[in-house]
Amino acid sequence: MKIFNTIIVLALLAFTACDVDYESNPNEPTTPPSSAVFNHAVDQIMTDTRDVWFSGRFTTVTMQYWQQSEYGDEDRYGYRESMRETWADFYYNLENLRKVIQLNTDEATAADMQAYGSNNNQIQTARIMMAYQFNIMADTWGDIPYYSYGSDNEAFHALQMGDIPGDEQILEPAYATQEAIYADILNELKAAAESLSEAENGFQQGDNIYHGDVALWKKFANSLRLRVALKISDVNASLANEHIDDALSKGVFESNADNAGFTYESSATNAAPMYTSWNVDNRSDFALGLSFAQLLKGENVMGHDNSNPITSNPFSGITDPRIHIYANQNSDGNYVGMPIAESSDEAATIGFESLPGDAIINTPDYTEYLMEYAEVEFILSELNGWDQGHYEAGIRASMERWGVPADDIDAYIDAVPAANEENVRTQKYIALYLQPHTAWQEYRRTGYPQTLIPPFTDYSVTNPADGASYNFTFSPIPAEIQQTQDLPYRMKYPDQEYTLNGTKNKEARDRLPNGDTQASKLWWDVN
Amino acid sequence: MRKFTILLALMTFLGVNSVLAQRTINGTVTSAEDGQAIPGVQVVVKGTTIGTTTDLDGNYNLTVNEQAEILVFKFVGMATKEIEIGNKTVINVTLQSQVMDIEGVVVTALGISREKKSLGYSVQEVSGDDMNKATQNDAISSLQGRVSGVQIRSSGNMGGSNNILIRGATAITGDNQPLIVVDGVPMDNANYNDINTQAGGGGTDYGNMLNDIDPSEIESVSVLKGAAAALYGSRAANGVILIETKKAKRGKEAFDVSFTSSVDFEEKYLHPNLQNKYGGGAIIPDDAGGVDGFQTVTVDGQTVKIPQMQVDESWGPRYNENVMVAQWDAWGPEGQLINDPRPWVAPENDVLDFYNTGVSLTNSIGVSKTGEEYGVRFHYSNVSSDGTLPGSERAKNNFKLSGNAMLGSKITVNANLNFAKTYTQGRPEIGYGDNSLGQKFYQWGQRQLDYGLLEDYKYEDGTQRTWNRQGYNNSTPQYADNPYWIAYENRPEDERNRFYGNVGLSYQILDNLSAEGNIYGDTYNFYVRERVAVGSQAQPGYEEHVRAFSEYNYEGRLNYNNKFDKVNLQAVAGGNIRDYRYDRNSGYTSGGLVVPNVYSLTNSSGNPIIGDYTEEKQVNSLFGNVSLSYDGFLNLDLSARNDWSSTLPEDENSYFYYGASGSFVFSDLLDMDAMNLGKIRAGYSQVGNDTDPYRVGSTYSYNGDGTFQDAARLFISNQLPNSELRPEQTATTEFGLDLIFFEDRLNFSATYFNKATTDQIIPLEVSKATGYATQVINAGEMVNTGVELTLGGDPVRTDDFTWRIMANLTSTKMTVEKLYRDLEAIDIVRAPFGGVFLRASEGDEYGQLWGYDYITDDNGNKVVTPGGSYARTPNLTPLGSVYPDFNLGISNNFNYKDFDMSFLFDIQQGGIFYSLTHMWGMYSGMLEETAGVNADGNEIREDGVILDGVQGDVSFNEDGSYEVTNTSENDVRISGRANGAFAYHAYGTPSAQSVFEANYVKLRNFSLGYTLDQEQLKSQLFKSVRISLYGRNLFTWGLDKEGFDPEMTVAGSGNIQGIDGGLQPMSRTYGFKVNINL
Q: Which residues, including other chains, have CB under 8 Å from residue B1037's CB and lie 6 or more apart?
């Protein structure tokens, strides 16, 4: 009997010794629809680049389209550390795009992915979005770790961790030079457009830019190639021209119907970023910028004595009809720009500034544009010696896309002075409202518009309702760019790269003319 | 009050007893060894608290009733003796000395009782009585300062978080919390505060799940460290806290009833010092239209001065009772003047007046009945609290039923069932969040606000009335809701229902061999509901989280005990299956609420958002333990265990570990009268550890916001899993010495340990350019070394008076020896706004805060920039570890006749913390220093300030080091405003300005009691009654920065520590308590 009991107990123990199986994750799939990954990645790219931080507090205020109405540190170039960390989000987006490509190339999954569009067209579309994202990043920081689908350049170290065996992973990626990056972006856009096949399906779902229209993706790739090629034309004219000619021959945007736009949902959850800021987070942090308001009103920013204009408005005396859409009237029925304030206190004394327009801040299903037809026309005007026809077409395209009535468009085009460098570039700046990052790139390349209030300037703002005038001085904050009477040339690298990728980051910092500061010009910024 | 009525009724019911005849017994107690009289021997009637102690001549005199059968004679260091009374009136007794009893018996791993003398490792035990002299909120924080080698940080928030470290953190990432076992049940002590909340980014502190257990029912707590813990396997890598609750032990006929009732009061008393000279907004200069520094507006023909109500800073005009200002409360919803302008003066009711005095009522009843073959105990306790935050309350109910019985001669069954129900409403948001009052009171705000006026927080139409209006003519909240609105309208609630306990059966196979099987279960549902009311600054909404947790352990084992001549053998072998499951369902409204004040997901304006998650894990184990003792003075302990975990890859999921320890009781070989015990001990253990579920295979996550434009959204997680994971290993070596002198008048225990954790499973943070944030890898080595000292004894022990003192010192140094390849640091977390990072950096002490430091010259003077503020290093540099150099707890117990008094000091030295509250409070003109006076005695806001330091040229080297040359005394005057605002790191000034040392001296516990025994009560009903006064956290001294308590930084129980993102004032509690035994 005793022995019998002992046996029972021992049997119980033997049972417990059984091995266990690995418990796989019941919450998440290992193989998702590639369209779902693309949908997420593009949505994130748009939101990350257009939110109140990377767009709002960074380039929108830097380019003086808007200013912050209470706390204006970033208006004066004091960008917070956290803004630089959008870097991380950009790379996550890129990795997701790489995963789209991988799902369509890996033998184990490619066949299943055909259900969401042809493997080839999915891959090419993802490449175009990668080029778009990398272009923004290189314009922001300069040299960055880079990945290319089409190139085997060994200097491209980014995204070398997922699906790669442990000993081949690159955890501390080297930074590619801007020269190599832009050349590859151009090649990627070229190759992707060439490889896109209109005989096959584009994305059957999850493509919220062109909804699977392969022909439009081609046009976008070529148009984007124009933007990138033109940017480097001062430093590598032959490469730039080669791509410009090729892109134009392959076909670029021809009307607003070709615009690359991304439309948000009317639901609060998936609404456009600015709508979310004003209506979900209840933050009304931004107002129309003073210099931009004056530009649209056909006026100049005035100095302290209020008789001495300190900007030179090429469209002096002409009211731009887009002002009614770009901005809301203040409570007195006027359009008044928010000053770039000496301090937050002074900003707080202003209570009559105009907010951005309802079409922008109170429209949940707002469309954010990656690129518009108008920009292509302004590029063509520039390429063709400040061509008047392309100039006018650019103005018209911009106004039409913003819904300006046709009569107002005609009247405005009749009124504006003829195309020249200043006029074309300033019109391009006006048209790039809400694509501030591209406007910043253009400013650095060309020095236009010249209507921005430069640092260290004394100026005044007047409330038209009572004629009261307020004096300010634009004092930028960070010491590193206090000495230059110019806008920041780049953004500092995120602090994380200093610790997580210190050696490689240092190589890149050492290549910068003024180190890792906002005062180091990028490779193509030679004016 | 109703509870007291019930209590009284019970007493009356139970009190129908006749008074019985009494008689007197006397005698003398002497030592068997030398025949000397022994003073201070306890003489007690068995089964009662009736008793006395012997006088200086060893004599005693005791009156007993007729029922008294046996007298018990007890004295420390002597064998207890029981004598039958019979008809005797004189009982003389001789006591044998018994060294073994001095250390006594302790509960060790798997609930095995062992003689403390034989152990080769340190185990420290705390009695529930000591812990409960002051009524405790939760079992864990009441251990503060009581055990060496254990560091506990408690947030002080209602039901808030505790962080417990035993011998320091072992893992670079993760929570490093010990396994907590209650009556054999491994209990979940999860902390669901998200990373944002823990890092000070804002959120509610829902505390630790183990706050469920009832402190008043704790019999004893013992803490196992190192080798002692190995038998528990994986989860013991961070040590084990064994909690035994009160039981009814079979063996004698008895019936006991006890009541405890206490009331205590909590008040906020410690908080950052705020300035009291200037009000909110900014000073509007005359040339910008300002009058007395104010803007003016004209309403209905009346021109009035207004403060900048839309600004949440305090750089406004100086207080002046002659200046009348139409402040926030003067304005109606649409800008109509509804109240007259008021003088611009400091508030009558300031921040601390916002808080109430919290009141807690704690009542409990315990009933035990035992017989020869059974014991049953029932216990119920209720805690009802109104918190200090307006509208906050907490109700906690604990039920327990435990019992054991012999079924025949060989089978014993036991069961222990617990139900805990906790409801909390109105926990404060902490950190930098929308509803965080700390943020509103110290970081951003206006100092002239009167909290008495703010209490009227709604207009007649129910809309919010806040001071932070968008303008005089627009009552929409700009940044800040009215704090009363936050407290009453936006309060969260949470509720937890928990069942735990065990059922077991043991069978005596042979005299010295038994088998037992136990099932241990722990399961709870935890509901969290958070709301943002319509009319708040933020978008209205509601969210709900339901978490279901269960863990069952099925254990079978064989126990064998035998004695061969002088060798004693104790062996255990067994197996365990652990089944774990965790489910979470979350829902959020989107786009606002359709109807105000209805908090339901279906009241969502847009589609509600859902989230769910399930986690399962199974670990199978085999374990064994052998203890050998030779003649009591040479002892050896060996234990081994193998685990198979479902979280690891199939070919790597088995891991074996072991522990060995030994002790040598050298006092047995010496013949020293003074030394009762002298022991040296040594131990070594190796503990393997698995990881969280689902870290092996790569999967795609669903976007939490659902589909987009009718198409699904998924993404690859930015944490890359690893299919080649191996279990991590922690090896601990320890040496110790235990000494007891003069019958425990003096005792001393010292332990040195070295604990190395290698092959850590960590989410290694990588350059984001890899496409990932982290990859789970085996890497890194952390070495903790430390010393644990306990020194105690009874310096005074007389008839009437005893004084017992104990000091526990813990000093642990954690060093990050190696990370991964040539990586120099891993970020654990980034402080909000990024001026400071918590990191593990190679070669440094663990838990380094990296920030921008001051630049100093060779003489240690701070360098001041030409602009007049402090210069900073260009790169982040290590500023120090958040973990202290040492913790020291000193407890004192005094007994004088029927009085007892105890108090406990808890001292922490070293370690640092970062205060966002300080940073923003300086920036926004809220803190006292922003309105101080300069060296000339002038107001800095009017006269500016010249900072202490030097001007000089700084040249930086490649590696970030620098030289300062050409120095001269700083003579640059900076305005008070600019000096304050320059505390903000983004302007290029040192974040070290907001880093402080985490020192403190706290009076944790105090109690003063008076006990009446049966004799004094002249009652047959009451065995004893004790009344007492007590206090918790009564005083704090020695803070580096006045008003900034380092414990205010605790916002979770994990490794994210040392960052204050928005703190709550600290509380003190004092109360009154009655214990009644029937």
A: B1000, B1001, B1002
Name the token pair of A509: 């910092």
pLDDT of res. B287: 75
List of chain A residues with pLDDT < 50: 1-2, 7, 15-16
Return the minimum-mean-pLDDT range out of B69-78, B516-525, B971-980, B1044-1053: B69-78
Angle at B989 between CA B983 and CA B994, to 5 degrees: 45
Contact B376, B254 (CB under 8 A): no
Mean pLDDT of chain B: 89
Answer for the pair B638, B625: CB distance below 8 angstroms, yes or no.
yes
Indicate whether B20 pLDDT > 50. no
Which ipTM was obtained for this model? 0.93
Task: Give dist(CA B159, CA B523) in Å, integer.
Answer: 19
Say yes or no for a CB contact (<8 Å) between B771 and A94. Answer: yes
Please list, residue by residue across A276-294, b when 16 or more beta carbons sit within 10 angstroms of its beta carbon and e when fewer do.
bbbbbebbbbbbbbbbbbb
Inter-chain touch A23–B646, beta carbons under 8 Å: yes
pLDDT band at residue B1 under the 50/70/90 scheme: very low
- Hey, what amino acid is at A268? A
Are B717 and A161 spatial neighbours (Cβ–Cβ below 8 Å)?
no
Buried b (16+ CB within 10 A) or exposed e, B357-371: ebbbbbbbbbbbbbb
Contact A161 B308 (CB under 8 A): no
Q: Which residues contact A466 (CB under 8 A, 6 or more apart)?
A: none
- Count other C-beta atoms under 10 Å from residue B935's C-beta: 10
Determine the residue among B555, B716, B827, B830 to mutate to test chain A binding: the one whose Cβ has the most chain A Cβ atoms within 10 Å.
Answer: B716
Distance CA B225, CA B241 (A): 9
In this complex, the residue of A25, A279, A351 whose CB is nearest that of residue B471 is A351
Nearest CA distance, B90 vs chain A (angstrom): 51
With bands split at pLDDT 50, 70 and 90, how would you rate the model's confidence at B1049? confident
Q: What is the pLDDT of residues B403-446, one digit of tens each?
A: 999 998 899 999 999 999 999 999 999 999 989 999 999 999 99
The pLDDT tens digits of the residues spanning B846-897 come to 999 999 999 999 999 999 988 888 999 988 899 999 999 999 999 999 999 8
DSSP β-bridge partners for residue B517 = B505, B556
Selected residues 254-273 of chain A with any CB under 8 Å from a CB in chain B: 263, 265, 267-270
Please tell me which of the candidates B645, B703, B876 has its beta carbon nearest to residue A40: B703
Residue B1019 has pLDDT above 80, yes or no: no
Mean pLDDT score, B826-855:
91
Determine how many CB atoms are found less than 10 A away from the CB of residue B696.
22
Residue whose C-alpha is closest to residue A291's, from A139, A487, A54, A442: A487
Nearest to B734 by CA among B678, B783, B661: B661
Give A496 to chain B, closest Cα distance, Å. 7
Cα–Cα distance, B571 to B184 (Å, whole number):
18
Residue A435, CB half-sphere, CA atoms under 13 Å: how many?
Answer: 26
d(CA A286, CA A271): 18
Q: What is the pTM of this model?
A: 0.85
pLDDT of residue B1068: 95
Coil vs helix vs strand at A384? coil
Alpha carbon distance B406, A366 (integer Å): 76
Closest CA to B730 of B151, B235, B242: B235
| CB contact (8 A) between residue A349 and residue B825 | no
Under the banding of pLDDT at 50, 70 and 90, the label for residue B789 is very high
Report the distance separating Cα B573 and Cα A285, nearest Å. 67
